[in-house]
Amino acid sequence: MKATTHAEFIQSRIYFMEYIIQRVFYEKSKEHNRCIDQLTLILDMKHLSLKHMHPSWIPVFSEMMTIMEANYPEFLRICYVINAPPIFGTIFNFIKPLLSKLTQEKIHVLKSDYRATLLQVIDSSKLPACYGGKITDPNGDPQCPSKISWAGPVPASLFRKKLSDDKPSVPKQSEVSEEVKRFTDCGRDLTMVEVGPASRKDISIGMVDVGDEIKWWLSCETHDIAVGVFMKNCITNDEKVTSDPSKSSDTYIEMIPMKRVSSHEKIVQGTLSVENSGVYILVLDNTYSWTKSKRLWYHLSVSLFKEVQNSDQFV
């Protein structure tokens, strides 16, 4: 992930899928005078190795597969995996639970004689010569680089920032604070907090009434953080609310589910329109990271019901 961010990569894959549906499928359907709405995919795993299995890719793969299954379930007609090294089995076992049974049945891992199988389902005039077909580049290159974008090392000139190793550089506190100040326009109320490894931080929002609106902004130095909003359960007038809800024995109702957000890549903001009066907390969860602590800056605000109504009149 040296040349792109988690969010940018996911967006690029969605753009790619939509481009195929709206442009490629449309043009091919018009050309052949019939509906074309599925792909036959060839995945060449020739150079796949352990170096491609960096931990940072795990959440990216998980989110990408979830999006594909939810939004493009019938996009794939069949997938042929060729030149798969032994490690592919381990990788596929990780991806498999994210795929529906129907999608799993469409994936076929071929052996070294894959060319014969490909020619049974793909016309040789549509298949590159390197895979047993007849297509070559004008200069006779069987890999057809003018038609196929072959994967390879990413040039250092495209890196988002200079890295001497796999550890991301840590921005200065003043730089992050200024970025949040410019975005929220409320720099005086910024709060810095550090969430230790395998731990969480519960930030008290206080008593909020129906119709009020809770807003928050987050900016993390490095790595992601999980965020959620909870409301205290079974509130009575006699109960006391501790300043640190994480130390109380009270139970809380999940109002916004916990979700990992890439607040180190961009400022993350959220809003909750309150439908139940109660005491609310913002939870910053780092329990999934056993070795890394997360330092971040946040701002919380609560707009009262009257203020929300007045702002809506001018929208």
Automatic annotation (TrEMBL):
Top-rank lineage group of the source organism: Eukaryota
Pfam family, one: GOLD_2
InterPro entries noted in UniProt: CRAL-TRIO_dom, CRAL-TRIO_dom_sf, GOLD_dom, GOLD_dom_sf, SEC14/CRAL-TRIO_domain
GO CC terms in record: cytoplasm
Gene3D superfamilies documented for this protein: CRAL-TRIO lipid binding domain, GOLD domain
SMART domains: SEC14 (SM00516)
Protein's recorded name: Uncharacterized protein
